[in-house]
Amino acid sequence: MYETFDELGIQPEILQAVKDMGFEEPTPIQKVSIPVALSGKDLIGQAQTGTGKTAAFGIPVLERIDTTKPGPQAVILSPTRELAIQSAEEINHLAQYLPIHALPIYGGQDIERQFKALRKKPNIIVATPGRLMDHMKRGTIDLSNVQILVLDEGDEMVDMGFIDDIRTILAAIPEERQTMFFSATMPGPIRELAETFLKDPEVVKIKAATV
Ligand code: ADP
Ligand code: MG
């Protein structure tokens, strides 16, 4: 098991950002998930709220972005506007020394403003399902180069009634990709989605007592 961020083999730019953010050592879900995610494998990560799941997928997503290519290579699905904003902010903090930008896309925000932001070709999109589908239907987002898809807070997605939207999005993004599901709990509908869309996933489950 890797005990420090240095041992995880992440690039110096991210190590510096992690230090700036005051993260002294990886949390249990980060220790186990980061090496698996870096290998390109599909992953189910389950750990309590507040245990650092955002960086558990955010760091490997940043490592896997090819900065010579424009446009979204990773899509992170978030259940709420607040979470999309917060996750994009954390990823942009982690990316502060890299030429990588994460854009939050959510309902309720002026769509013209989003068209403009999307034309700047952000590397990572952090989106709520409804607004992402809206852009997909309008053809205002190019997902043809997406290689990583993260479903964040899967249990909240179920509570919000987003399962059908998520299924549509998962089916529309190129199949040659890495898919990761993160959640505090794994309700039935999320397990079913995982069975359909994840390829031989590694399951990382951190018990509350060890956190
Ligand atoms: P979760 O998604 O599991 O609920 P978050 O990713 O939102 O948790 O993280 C919760 C808080 O912990 C955030 O403020 C985040 O910046 C912080 N955090 C994440 N990883 C670490 C770490 N390795 N050390 C210290 N704080 C961390
Ligand atoms: Mg979270």
Automatic annotation (TrEMBL):
| Entry keyword annotation includes Nucleotide-binding | yes
Q: Which domain of life is it from?
A: Bacteria
Q: Which protein, by its recorded name, is this?
A: ATP-dependent RNA helicase CshA
Q: Which residues of the full protein are shown?
A: 1 to 211 of 517
Q: What keywords is this UniProt entry annotated with?
A: ATP-binding, Cytoplasm, Helicase, Hydrolase, Nucleotide-binding
Q: Where is the Helicase ATP-binding domain?
A: 34-204
**Record flagged with keyword Hydrolase:** yes
- MF terms per GO, please? ATP binding; hydrolase activity; RNA binding; RNA helicase activity
Upper taxonomic classification of the species?
Answer: Bacteria, Bacillati, Bacillota, Negativicutes, Veillonellales
Motif Q motif, per the record, lies over 3-31
